[in-house]
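Table 4 source record.
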Amino acid sequence: MPEKNIEVIYHLIGVPLRTGSLYPGSENDAQAYRDTHLLRRLEAAGCQIIDEGDVPIPNYLPHHSIPPIRNWPGPRIAWDCVSEFIAPYLQQPGHIPLLIGGDCSIVVGTTQALMRVYGEGVHILYLDGHIDGVAPQPERCSSGAMMALWLTTQASPFCASPTLKPSQVTVIGWSDDQGSVPMEIQSLPIAKVRRLGPSEAARQALQAIPAAAPILLHFDIDILNKQEMPASYFPPTAGLSIAEARELLGIILADARVRIIEVTEYASLRDLDQSSVLRIGELLEAGLKMKSS
């Protein structure tokens, strides 16, 4: 865990991936973040940040709908690519990978990388409109994105061990469980976030995590409502407002235990005027500015 007095450097990393999903739209969305000058805006907010380009993921990955996991083994190949790419940054105190792009299944690869560096005591804060705990079924084809937390916390032939204990995952802001299997994850559904208030919900989630636990912050933009974030890949029927998300992220991003930040499920093909990606950038800018101040 980085000490508070260690200088923080963010490494902006694109993830050109949709192999964990179904429809096109999220395979090159990192470019939209760069087109809207995310790096320059984060620098203006006081962040030290370096653009490291995109994770080199093979462009010949399969696309199919054969059960149980769509496009398999493409997701596993991509997770391993992501894990290997970010590992050198995790080994340096104060260096934080900021991943932009791809679908929710990348959490399997980023968790794998974090555990290899820090051991089994890591924790995931999973900000998402869905629980993503669907189990693979032999007669049904589901996306790796829908299975992201099941694959991260359950021993299976589909990904490398070790797995994370479900109790080391906190899902915040969800409104749709997608038929996820029961797991002993920590849960703050959207109704509870609103009842507590986003700031208090974030504080309670952080206080429940051991003081020495490195945190992976997973931010799926479909935690936001469709009216304010129409470019999310799979928007739920309900979601937080931009203002609520800003409040929630502001508390979490200020925590010195955060070691990875990943922003997923933005579909650039649904955002031709780039208004949605600008809003995402503003959320990051506001949260990281608070951390830098």
